Amino acid sequence: MAVSPPLDSEQLDNQVEHKVVQDATCTFCGCVCDDIDLHVEGDKIVDAKRACVLGNSWFLNHEIDHRPSCHIDGKPAEVTQGVERAAQILAQSKYPLIYGLSDTTSESQRVAVSIADWIDGTVDTTTSVCHGPSGMAFQGVGEVTCSLGEVRNRADMVIFWGSNPAESHPRHFTKYSLMPKGMFLPNGRKDRTAVIVDVRKTKSAKAADIFVQIKPRSDFEGLWTLRALAQDIELDAEQVLADTGYPLDKWQDLMDRMKRARFGVIFFGMGLTMTRGKHANSEALLALTRDMNRHTRFVCKPNRGHGNVTGADNVVAWRTGYPFGVNMSRGYPRFNPGEYTASDVLARGEADAAMIIASDPMGNFSQPAREHLKSIPYIAFDPKETPTTRHSAVAFTVATYGINVPGTVYRMDDVPIPLRPAFESPHPSDLELLTNIETRVRELKKQQANCNKHRPSLRPA
Amino acid sequence: MVASFILIPGRTSRQGCGINEGKFNETYQRETHLLQVAPSDMEQLGLTAGDTVRLTSDFGQAEVPVIAAKRDELPAGLLFIAYGDISSRLMGGDTHGSGMPTSKGLDVTLEIL
Ligand code: SF4
């Protein structure tokens, strides 16, 4: 039999498929830019046109990871074995927690909520540790809001409060909020006033016309000062300076400009929600936005971090009626931040098993929460190795959403956007694994129900 | 010498790139294990870049090397670190009924080692 000679590197290179995926969607941050042209060589993205520094590193660093698709107790295993073990852990648990979900497709999120329902579990998303307090505030005050397209075409007063998009959402300014020439803003940046409110003079502050540097932990006081000024209430200058670290005449100047604006928007970040006051800070901002509509059109929008964290809020809300921190143990959904949110459920040592999808609580939760998670059996899904996958009972290496897997994600303004993947992965998708786990969990629960027929249950009949 | 500060953990684009490269790789590890101090505080405390300090909050402790923040980015009395293991160690588990632990504006003491 004739043996063909080995190919040299040039011939090998010629065999690699080159293609361009137009209008691909970047899911690294909540901007969800869907105008990226990906240049793909085989199973490697070599260029991501129009992506920012973060988007570029997102696309160029998600090559195929040559680890096994499944590990059980740290040892390589078959995916089917992993699915069986995961289903057993979840079905046998008394207080299971399903957490994460902000870096996966809405199709997967939907199945994860179903699993939580079958196992009488708690489902929470990374929203609880980013804009969860804003979610609570929306329920108390409401949200006067709009799409990013409206901001692009109309907003002549753009305020960022406790948010640093130059570092966290690098195309926010150029694609949506500051630079674009809009329908009613023919001169783009020149037609807009940009304001940054922060305790640090961040990279974003350098792009602003007005930088309002407030005292740490005085966001609520600053917002309440503006609310008073919006209603022409007289304030004591010394008190305002002592409370906010910023002089009253400058707050007044800012309010005058806000009233004169034709269309104002306040984007707010975790500077508000993670600082003392939390939901009260977000409530103050939402109330200020509402108040401003007595004078002119004003809207607000949380600057959401992860690519599909907004999808997680939407999916959990349309499946359970609540956006995050939902408990199903009574057979119907109950919502209570502080009780059913992952950070609390873990730090108080309540959950006895968990499934963590596309997030890394072992990397960024508080120490008591991390210690408890380490002590219980849990399943982790991630395209990369993380502190969470390292300590898990079952770890799945999954295909990356948007790069290998199609589906839907929600931009930070609740606009659903389709994904256009670049190449296939040998690893399974979250959706495939979750669907298999759901099927097996249902079988196990049915068996348990038959055995427990005569035992009392908290679930209504 | 022990001094009191307010610590602001936050996001940086280098930390974001580090997540993409892999959390056990150098970019992420270096970025999340580096404390930014205002230049005036560096001077007052006699710190130079690379010195290690111990941060203590009501909830935990961590040792971390320092670097001077860029020019006027940080006011005196404020420290900054990219979110990661160090900031998590200093955070408390209580969320005050909100689901969110207080993760920014943490009271810490700084001790030069
Ligand atoms: S701004 Fe966000 S979504 Fe857009 S390219 Fe950059 S990282 Fe990706």
Note the gap between the termini of chain B. Answer: 9 Å
Q: What's the alpha carbon Rg of chain A, rounded to whole Å?
A: 24 Å
Taken together, the total number of domains of chain A comes to 3
Gross geometry of chain B: globular
Biggest interface, chains and residue tallies: A-B, 60 and 42 residues
Rg estimate of chain B, integer Å: 14 Å
CATH topology label of the largest domain in chain A: Rossmann fold
CATH class of the largest domain in chain A: Alpha Beta
Give the terminus-to-terminus CA distance of chain A: 72 Å
Proportion in β-strands of chain B: 25-35%
> What molecules are bound to this protein?
iron/sulfur cluster
Mean pLDDT of chain A: 94
Coarse structural class of chain A: alpha/beta
Name the helicity range of chain A. 25-40%
DSSP strand content of chain A: 15-25%
Number of strands of chain B: 6
Short description:
The complex is a heterodimer of chains A (461) and B (113). With 461 residues, chain A is of the alpha/beta class.
How do the helices and strands line up, and which of them pair or pack?
The complex is a heterodimer of chains A (461) and B (113).
Chain A (H helix, E strand, L loop, with lengths): L8 H7 L2 E7 L11 E6 L2 E6 L3 H8 L9 E3 L2 E2 L2 H14 L3 E5 L5 H13 L3 E4 L6 H10 L6 H7 L2 E5 L3 H4 L3 H6 L15 E6 L11 E4 L5 H12 L6 H8 L3 H13 L2 E6 L1 H4 L5 H14 L4 E6 L6 H12 L5 E2 L6 E2 L6 H6 L5 E5 L3 H4 L2 H9 L2 E5 L4 H4 L3 E4 L10 E3 L5 E3 L11 H22 L10
Parallel strand pairs in A: 6-7, 6-15, 8-9, 8-11, 9-10, 11-12, 15-16, 16-17
Antiparallel strand pairs in A: 1-2, 2-3, 4-5, 4-17, 7-13, 13-14, 18-19
Chain B lengths: L1 E9 L2 H9 L4 H7 L2 E3 L1 H7 L6 E5 L4 E8 L9 E5 L2 H6 L15 E7 L1
Parallel strand pairs in B: 1-5, 2-4
Antiparallel strand pairs in B: 1-6, 2-5, 3-4, 3-6
